[in-house]
Amino acid sequence: MRLLRTIPLLGALTAVLGALTVAAPAEDATAAPACQVDFHVSDTWATSTTLRYVASVSVKNNTPQEIQDWVLRWSFVNDEVIADAQGVDWAQTGGLVHVDGLSWNNDIAPDKPVSFDLLVNGPHRLSPENFVLQDTFRCEVAYSD
Asked: What domains does the chain contain, in order, with CATH numbers?
């Protein structure tokens, strides 16, 4: 019989707790992303052993503050390998890429993009993804060729 008395009490407690639940504010769907990446493939060709392409990349800071000592990370999903880069220091481990600015382009002012070029070995499929700036800001990406 004790179980029968507990069930109505649990129902009342659930109703009270449900009334106290506060809804989280909805994200502003119209807000611009913190960063914009434009990934433009300007040239493609094949050597006797591999496919290659040149990509011009620009990174725009959409925040109101300057981003200092910027770092951009992304992943290649089609076995692309960076052979060289101009305008950035870079490292790649597997498909994961890390680039950062040089002394002359190390900061990104609001609405002032920085640009760099990549020479990439691998198929040109506009496949880089998961662009993240400062390990914090997910970037909106526009691809073109």
From this structure: 35-144 (2.60.40.290)
